[in-house]
Amino acid sequence: MPETTPFVFNHSTYQVRYAAGGLDELGALADEFGCRQAAVVADSFFLGGDMETRLKEILKSVNPVFHGIPQHEPDTDDVEAARTFMADAGADMIIALGGGSAMDAAKVARMCMSNPGPIDDIVGPVGVTMKPHESLFVCVPTTAGTGSEVSESAIITKSGTDYKLIFRSPEMSARVALLDPELSVTVPASVTASSGYDAVTHAVEAFTSRASGPMTDPYAISAMEKLARWLPVAYAEPGNLFARGECLVASMQAAIAFNSAHLGMAHAIAGALGALHHTPHGLANALALPWTMAFNQPMLGEKGDLVARLYGGETAAEGLSKLRQTVGLDLSLDEFVTSDDARDLVAEGASKSGQLRVNPREAGVPELRAVLEAMRQPTSGLQPNLNL
Ligand SMILES: [Fe+2]
Q1: Tell me: the pLDDT tens digits for 8-45?
Q2: At what angle do helices 281-296 and 316-326 cross, to 10 degrees?
Q3: Ligand 1 center to residue 195 CA distance, Å?
């Protein structure tokens, strides 16, 4: 008799709510949980305009105060500023509204309030326990990408360095993830493409990960299906609310999958490119994924066939190459990394990533270096040719 491979599945978000116009439910949520004071942490461009006015009205029973997260990958200074803001507000309802940066900064800042020692004490994807914070925590994603609204982790740069700190605990999770596709219709096409391709990479890597299993595969498959069909539509027709909604649900499902299945070689490379060359995360994944899937192909089996079918290629890599071209992300690594020495350092950095441990095919520095060399060539939507 075959045996089911042992697996672990973690999911700690208490509730996911989805509705077009659902932002208006924030006031009812505050009342339902008996909150008295709301603190809103948002991408800074949301403040001082219509969104702030609308939130003041929706949340008037809980006297909202606002704090902006600057437009760069959040660092420990941003976290400290958000922590001070939340503590000064005496908030019992904390709302993170925005992309992954705002949500990740808010997640960690909130944990810094209930774990007041040095931030280093709560760094680490494993072996860390965090004390809970009693506030109601609500995440409202405005882009379809990171899925931070349902993941137990956050990534923050150590200020003044290129070093990424990884935080992980179920205590960081949102109690309520509130998904409102109306919030994403104004996202520019380039951001729709890059954040959407990040979600695609989450879904594909979680599906093909060695830690995938019967609790993560259904989420990953649904996310891959929705993104294959609807990301190109959301990219071409920004006002298509149905496409926006499908992408938002898919990015959340992909994050539920990768929260337990973890990721793979593309994220290992994207992490090093982000740290060493500030390559935007979604672009880095788009640069890497067709090539890493070409590398993984010998180990993909039936899962590779399914990815290929969903994305309309002979192989998973070809399908993902096609999607990348459709959404305007068929780029060369040379736009971000320009020398052999620099590519060597990216390979070294990527080789230290924990994501490699679950990649379907074993990869060390030489394999990473060869993939990085190949990434210099755009694929024009065709099969990436990698002789490894
Ligand atoms: Fe990602």
Answers
A1: 999 999 999 999 999 999 999 999 999 999 999 999 99
A2: 160
A3: 8
Cα–ligand 1 centroid distance for 22 (angstroms): 25
Q: What is the CATH number of domain 15-184?
A: 3.40.50.1970
pLDDT in tens, 331-364: 999 999 999 999 999 999 999 999 999 999 999 9
User: Ligand 1: distance of its center to the CA of 267 in Å?
Assistant: 6
Where along the chain do the CATH 3.40.50.1970 domains lie?
Answer: 15-184
Residue 163: its pLDDT value, please? 86
Kindly report which listed range (50-64, 151-165, 279-293) carries the lowest average pLDDT score. 151-165
CA of 103 to the centre of ligand 1 (A): 14
Domain with CATH 1.20.1090.10 in the chain: 189-374
Interstrand relation of 38-43 and 176-179 (parallel, antiparallel or unpaired): unpaired
Cα–ligand 1 centroid distance for 198 (angstroms): 5
How are beta strands 38-43 and 164-168 bridged, if at all? Answer: unpaired
C-alpha 146 – ligand 1 centre gap (Å):
6
What is the SS3 assignment for 69? Answer: strand
Report the CATH fold assignment for 189-374: Dehydroquinate synthase-like, alpha domain (1.20.1090)
- Rounded CA separation 257/234 (Å): 22
